[in-house]
Amino acid sequence: MTPHFNPWHDVTRGDETPKVVQSIIEIPKGSKGKYELDKESGLLKLDRVLFSAVHYPAAYGFIPQTYCDDKDPLDILVLCSVDIVPMCLVEAKVIGVMQMVDQDEEDDKIIAVAAHDISVNHYNDISDLPPHTLLEMQRFFEDYKALEHNKHVVVERFMGREDAYRIINDSITLYEETFGEKKLVKAE
């Protein structure tokens, strides 16, 4: 039997974590499809089509070998000048975090830029982004669940990269406490 490979557990976070992290994209910018990693199989599944007339404002995915209180890996939004296809590995330079509450549960979203995209990798902190970019992210996450059985999401605040680094490190600690040391497959 072939060993099972799961992107969440078997891809490294990257050698420069928490400043630059390996991210796995689930949803491309502009999508109305909510794709997510099936934790059992490691495949990407269509969770649902968004109920409202909104689309993802950035590539959306997760940081491997992280774990959060919502029982999922840590979410990441990656700004990039090109469309990033689902299940693509992207080295992402962390610039901040959006703290939000989804159904009374904390649900932080790391904000990053594609490290190898010259059109965005000059951003070093969330404060460098155009204000409209943050507003667009906030409106998307507050609005996209509003029509889904009156689910309520509140974006509490945006914070800079140092806070994002702390949140990433906390999610790594929780991952290691929950899953222990996993054998790593180096993603090149």
Automatic annotation (TrEMBL):
User: What is this enzyme's class at the first EC digit?
Assistant: hydrolase
**Location relative to the cell:** Cytoplasm
Q: Where does Mg(2+) 1 bind?
A: D70, D75, D107
Q: Name one GO cellular component term.
A: cytoplasm
Q: Which residues cross the membrane?
A: none
- Subunit comment for this entry? Homohexamer.
Please identify the protein, giving its name as recorded: Inorganic pyrophosphatase
List the top taxonomic levels of the source. Answer: Bacteria, Pseudomonadati, Bacteroidota, Cytophagia, Cytophagales
Gene of this entry: ppa
